[in-house]
């Protein structure tokens, strides 16, 4: 499991996917979320602007990140 250090209060889901280099650009990140390929704390979540906060866990294509 990877970790991502949050510097503010939250990071939007699509920005996290880009920051982790799991997608090439924002449009691709939006499609991945819309298609249900991203899980947020173990549940598929279709919100592109979801606010990911410290302690959350995001999984995409077998890769997992914990927000610290």
Topology:
Elements: E1 2-4, E2 11-12, H1 13-19, H2 26-34, E3 38-40, E4 43-44, E5 51-52, E6 57-60, E7 63-67
Parallel strand pairs: 1-7
Antiparallel strand pairs: 2-5, 3-4, 3-6, 6-7
Helix pairs in contact: 1-2
CA-atom Rg in angstroms: 10 Å
**Helical content (DSSP H or I, runs of 4+):** 10-25%
* CATH class type: Alpha Beta
> What is the distance, rounded to the nearest whole angstrom, between the alpha carbons of the first and last residues?
12 Å
Strand percentage: 25-35%
**Can you write the helix and strand succession as a string?**
EEHHEEEEE
The whole-number mean of residue pLDDT values reads: 96
CATH superfamily: RNA-binding S4 domain
Q: How many domains make up the coordinates?
A: 1
CATH architecture grouping = Roll
> Largest sheet, if any?
5 strands, mixed
**Structural class, judged by helices and strands?**
alpha+beta
Instruction: Tally the helices.
Output: 2
The side-by-side strand order for the widest beta sheet comes to: 1-7-6-3-4
Q: List how many beta strands DSSP finds.
A: 7
Write down the CATH topology: Structural Genomics Hypothetical 15.5 Kd Protein In mrcA-pckA Intergenic Region, Chain A
The low-confidence runs, each spanning 5 or more residues with pLDDT under 50, are none
How would you describe the shape? globular
């Amino acid at each position: 499991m990877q970790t991502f250090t949050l510097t503010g209060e939250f990071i939007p889901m699509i920005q996290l996917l880009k920051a982790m280099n799991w997608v090439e650009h924002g449009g691709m990140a939006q499609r991945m979320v819309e298609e249900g390929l991203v899980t947020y704390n173990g549940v598929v979540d279709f919100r592109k602007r979801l606010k990911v906060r410290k302690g959350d866990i995001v999984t995409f294509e077998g890769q997992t990140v914990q927000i610290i």
